[in-house]
Amino acid sequence: MGYVITIDGPAASGKSSVSRELSKKLGIPWVSTGAFYRGLAYVAQQMKTNLDNPIALSELCFSKMWKIVLTTEKTQVWFDGQDVTEKIAHEDVGNIASRISHFPEVRQSLLDHQRNCALENSGLIAEGRDCGTVVFPRAEAKIYLTARSEDRASRRAQELGLDKDILERQQKQRDIQDSTRKVAPMQIPQDALVVDTSQLNLEEVVQKAYQYAVPKINR
Q1: Distance in angstroms (rounded) separating the CA atoms of residues 128 and 187
Q2: Which residues make Cβ contacts (< 8 Å) with residue 136, sequence separation at least 6?
Q3: pLDDT tier at 133 (50, 70, 90 boundaries)?
Q4: What are the start-end ranges of the H helices in the chain?
Q5: Contact present, 37 and 110 (Cβ < 8 Å)
């Protein structure tokens, strides 16, 4: 397994954009671990799986009907032979993902799939909510991005064309769910670089991440 850089943080803090640009600068792939949960949420929604049944959800993790595909631009989710990556970005799917991620059975079933992304590459950027604490606790470099809730809601509203106030309420609820769950709660890794992206543009955040990570992966 090659080196790993983790980028964690709440929704719309800039994780995916920073991961994508850092991936280009370093010439290594990146993966959104959240896509695994959103993918599972979408599949469960389509299959009408009981969202309160952790065993059924865990079994669905191994279904051949869906898969994760890494590309340089995004982490794709394919379901029943179709690319549904854009569909899993919807907030209703995100809310389901946050809900089912509380189940230990689901997290354990997806964990190996997430870790396997690092086995076939010389380096990997992994972004999500618990990459630096649970998925890759021994990562060479850990980064945690955060931003004011109103800024995060504005970003997502522009991306999806939805109401900012509604999104802000939904994101606050998800933040509470993700940070208070008993298994793998969203939290800042002890040895992570914390970057508040509220007043920074994408290039500035990427530069901070690059300057922090490169010395660590070159040790």
Answers
A1: 11
A2: 4, 6, 115, 118, 126
A3: very high
A4: 15-26, 34-47, 54-60, 91-100, 104-116, 149-160, 164-180, 202-217
A5: yes
- pTM to 2 decimal places: 0.84
Predicted pLDDT of residue 157: 64
Encoded tokens for 102: 């509380």
Q: How many CB atoms lie within 10 A of CB 69?
A: 12
Cross-strand partners of 195: 145
- Per-residue pLDDT tens over the stretch 97-126: 989 988 999 999 999 999 999 987 789 999
CA atoms 177, 159, 92, 130: torsion sign: negative
d(CA 45, CA 207): 39
Mean pLDDT, to the nearest integer, of 171-192? Answer: 79
Is residue 122 exposed (0-12), middle (13-18) or buried (19+ Cβ within 10 Å)? exposed
Average confidence score pLDDT of the chain: 89
**164-180 and 149-160 helices, crossing angle to 10°:** 120
CA distance 118 to 78: 20
**Token duo for residue 84:** 């549904």
d(CA 149, CA 147): 6
Burial call 182-213: b when 16+ CB within 10 Å, e when fewer = eebebbebeebbebebeebeeeebbebbeebb
Cβ 143 vs Cβ 119: under 8 Å: no
- Is residue 61 classed as helix, strand or coil in its secondary structure? coil
